[in-house]
Amino acid sequence: MELIALVLSSLSVIGLVIAGLLLRGYLPSYVAEKGKNLASKEDLAHLTGLVESVKALHISELERLKADLLAESQTTERRRRVYEEMCFVLRVFISGHGGTPEIKELFHATYAAAWLWATDNVLVSLNHFIALQVQRAADPASVDQPTMKGAYTAIVIEMRKDVGFGGTVASGSDYQFVQF
After folding, report:
1. What is the DSSP track for 83-139?
2. With contact defined as beta carbons under 8 Å apart, do 150 and 174 qualify?
3. Domain parsing of the chain, residue ranges
4. What is the pLDDT of residues 35-50, one digit of tens each?
5. Which of 54, 43, 119 is nearest to 86 (CA)?
6. Residue 85, exposed/middle/buried by CB under 10 A (0-12, 13-18, 19+)?
7. DSSP code for 69
8. Long-range contacts of 89-98 (CB under 8 A, 24+ apart)
9. Which pLDDT value is given to residue 128?
10. DSSP secondary-structure letter at 174?
11. Radius of gyration (Cα) for the chain, nearest Å?
12. Cα 115 from Cα 11, distance rounded (Å)
């Protein structure tokens, strides 16, 4: 029995030594690999967080830019409509185009809309034209028709610049006044 106990004890010690040798060679590499994986996982989580925060920042910036462009586009479209109406109603001041009460009322409404939507350059040109009209109404000989037409075309050129034709080469002398 003693012999069996001694053999079993020896086998146990030999088994423990073999297990220890295996663990000594395997366990450090296993732990090292697990450590690298954990570090990689943490690095990946950190990098993913950074990428997502930058992505969110760019998305919010892109959405803000889209909103700004949409607002600018809507403003430009509104200006175009007001400017089209203004070109139509300013005809009331051009000789030979007549001025019905309806067109005069439309002029007042369009002039008010221009003060909301037009740029300063357009308003300056428009007010210069109106001032010439007031001067002419007081003394018809004080302002001739070519001066009035020049002031009118200056408004049209400023409106063209404002709605996207900033580099226009057209001038007031290119505008043709046609009467039937």
Report:
1. HHHHHHHGGGGSTTS---HHHHHHHHHHHHHHHHHS-HHHHHHHHHHHHHHHHHHH-
2. no
3. 84-174
4. 777 777 777 788 888 8
5. 119
6. middle
7. H
8. 90/129, 90/152, 90/155, 93/129, 93/133, 93/148, 93/152, 94/148, 94/149, 94/152, 94/177, 95/145, 96/179, 97/179
9. 95
10. G
11. 42
12. 103
Q: What is the mean pLDDT of the chain?
A: 84
pLDDT bracket for residue 96 (50, 70, 90)? low
Count each helix (H run) and each strand (E run) in the chain, helices first.
4, 0
- DSSP-based helix, strand, coil % in the chain, nearest 5: 85, 0, 15
Instruction: Report whether 115 contacts 123 (CB < 8 A).
Output: yes
How many other C-beta atoms lie within 10 A of the C-beta of residue 68? 10
